[in-house]
Amino acid sequence: MDQRPTPPPREYTDGSTAIVRGALDAGCDFFAGYPITPASPILMMMMREMPRVGGIAVQGEDEIASIGMCLGAVLAGARAMTATSGPGLSLYSENLGLAIMGEVPLVVVDVQRLGPATGGATTVGQGDVQFVRWGTSGGYPIIALAPSSVPECYHLTMKAFDLAERFRCPVFLLTDKELNMTMATVAVEDYRPAEVRPRPAPAEPGLPYRYAPADEVPPLRPYGAGETVRFTGSTHDERAFITKHPPTVDALNRHLAAKIEDHRDEIELAAADPDPAADTLIVSYGVTAGAVREAVRRSRAAVKPVSSLVLHSLWPVPEHALRAAAAGARRVLVPELNLGQYRLEVERTLPQVEVAGLNRIDGEMITPEQILEAVR
Amino acid sequence: MTTTTITPLASYRNDLPYPFCPGCGHSPILDALNAALVKRGSDPANVVIVSDIGCSGLSDQYFITSAFHGLHGRSITYATGIKLARPDLDVVVVMGDGGTGIGGAHLLNAARRNIGITLLVFNNFNFGMTGGQHSTTTPAGAFTSTTASGNLERPLDICATVAVNGAGYVWRGTSFDDDLPERIAEAMDAGGFALLDIWELCTAYFVRSNKYTRRAFQSTLDDLGWPSGIIQRRPELPEYAAAYRAAPKPARSSVGIASIPVTQGSALDRRYSLLVAGSAGGRVRSGVRLTAQAAIRSGLYAAQADDYPITVRSGHSLSTLVLSPEPLDFAGVTVPDALVILSEDGLAKSRALLPRLAPEATVLAFPEVAGLDTPARLLVLDPSAASSRLARADHGLAACAAALHVLGLFPTAALVEAAASAGRLAEELSRVVAAGLEMAAAAR
Question: What is the DSSP letter of B61?
Answer without folding.
Answer: G
